[in-house]
Structures are given as structure tokens and as C-alpha cells.
Amino acid sequence: MAAVDQIAAGEPAAAGRGLRRGGQGGTRSGQRDGFRPWRWLILILAGAYFIIPLYAALRFAGWGSFRSVIHQSGFAASLGLSVRLAVITTMITLALVLPTAVYVHLRLPRLRRLLEGITILPIVIPPIVLIVGLLEVAPGFLKSTPYLLALAYVVLAMPFAYRSIDAGLRSFDLKTLVEASNSLGAGWPSTIRRVVLPNLTTALLSATVLTVALVLGEYTMASLDLYQTFPVWIVVFDQTSGPISVAASLLALFVTWLFLLAITMLGGRQARRTGGGGVALFSVARRDTGRTS
Asked: What's the predicted TM-score (pTM) here?
């Protein structure tokens, strides 16, 4: 009972243990405060490492280039193609990865290591090797369409989508929730829709944004497949107007940042509202079981 009371008490119990140890808690707090300037210094250096190049690119492009980007020839067509590929890639990736990850967590937990190793292969194998091999084995009706790129992008997105969904599945007790749902008479479609998916909202959003960011930034496969996606248009247009090309790159980067910020805020708000685990990209926060009686 004493251990349960200490867990339920949370931080006050930890503080009491520190006082009972003769002020060791205060000494450790003082040591942590001593390292605080170093943490701020590292944070400032990391921020400068990212902000200074962005500021230089913004000065080079100028504010007027952002207004001129949307009026350039090929901008709408290339962006529309990239958006279509992003939507198709995301749908196929989630349709393949989500059921696989759920089934492995429930039925084949010993295969998690093997599946992690398989999904990491697209990062190890160069994209140029993947697209050349895919062009050799793909059927003719797919070679004549840009949607062959969507299948290639599914392979590239697997490491990011799988790890996001896997982190989400590890943030709550999936097996217990599924068994409880089945004991109440719910079938598998209802269990997935009403039990699993609500707990994976942030993880699915993370996988979606990572997949979309990958598609909107991929250049090698699209250029070798001879299709002008948005990244290819940026590189081609850079030969005629460098400032407008840089402005288009910054615009895509800022939009991606906004999506990532929205995911972080949504995940944190959902975790505070439900008291459950939250997922922000690849990080996992488990449920706080110490406050339950």
C-alpha cells in the first residue's frame, strides 16, 4: 500500500525521498541549474545553424519573389502532380502499413524486429537503384503514367510511416483494448474504427506529414522517370531564375513546418484531454498509470 501511495503521489513522494536523503535532492537540483547555461548555448547554436541559412536564402530571394512564384509557367502543373502523387502515396502507404503493424503487434510480436529491419532497407538502398530496377520490371501501362512514381514513393515512405505507427501502437495497451472490444461483441472492422484508430490519430498524422514531405521533396526518382514534379520544376527553373526557385523551396519548407507544428499541438492537446499517451513524430509518451487507483 505504501508503494501505491508513493506512485499516486507522484512528484511530492519524489521530493520527500530527496529530503529524507539529507538534502541530496537540493544538491542535484543545484547541479542541474549549473548546466542550464550550456543547454541554452547549445540551443542557440543549433538555432543559428538553421536560421542563418534560411535568412540568407530569404534575403537572396526577396519578398517579391514569393508573389511571382505562382505566376510562373509550369508551377501549377508540377505542384498539382506532386500533390496527386502525395495523396496516392499516403493512401497506399497507410493501407499497407497500418493493418500490418496492428497484426504484428497482436499476433506476431516476435516478428517486430524482422519487420523493422525490412522497412529500413529503403533508407539503405539508394533511390537511383530503386527507380532503375523498378523501370526494368514495371509493366508497360504503368511506365506510361506518372503514377509509377507513387509506387516507388510508397517504398521510400515505409521506414517513416511504419515507425510513426509503431510508436503510436506502443503508446497504449493494444491487446487489452482489442480483447475488451471483442468481449463486448464488436467485430474487427468496428474495433479498428472505434478503438484502434482514435488512439492512433497523432501517429497517423505524423506518418501522413512525413510521407507528404518526402513526396514534395523527392527529386532523383522523378527526374530519372522524366516527369516534372515540383522538386524537378524548382531545379529546372533555377537555371533561368534563381531567386524564384529559392522562394519556391522556402515556400514548400514553411508549409511543411506548419504541418509539423499542427501535429505537435494536436497531439499534445489530445494527450492532455484524454490522459493517454501522445506521439510526436517518433517519440512515444506512455499512459500515466500512476494516477489510477
From this structure: 0.73
